[in-house]
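Hi R.,

Here are the chain sequences for the assembly we discussed:
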Amino acid sequence: MNFKHAVSITAAVLLVSAVSLAQAHAKLEDSEPKAASQLSTAPREIRLQFNEALESAFTKIRLVGAGNAEIALSRQEVSKDNPKLITAVPPALAAGEYHVQWSAMAHDGHKTKGEFVFSVK
Ligand SMILES: [Cu+2]
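And here is the predicted structure of the full complex:
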């Protein structure tokens, strides 16, 4: 086996592992509010839909408002009917920009995280 062959085989193995890992990770597929949305009415619920079932103990939504202040969410829970969905209820939100920061764990134990912004007009 020459060096070029070894490199391409290694690359192929890495690619296959990366794909199988990526499939098992919790990835955000959809949300309410939508990322970058501008709402005329404050949302009554935040809903994050993932591609994988979530470990509820290690999956969390944080809501951050003006001045980087965290806003307490209530009734934060992974849906009993849909283990890929986590929901939380914010207080009445004033006009402004809000960051939704999530961290999630799928059943394979891999953690992922992300963030998106929405605003209330
Ligand atoms: Cu994974």
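The first helix runs from residue 3 to 24. The domain at 3-120 is CATH 2.60.40.1220 (Immunoglobulin-like).

Let me know if anything looks off.

Best,
T.
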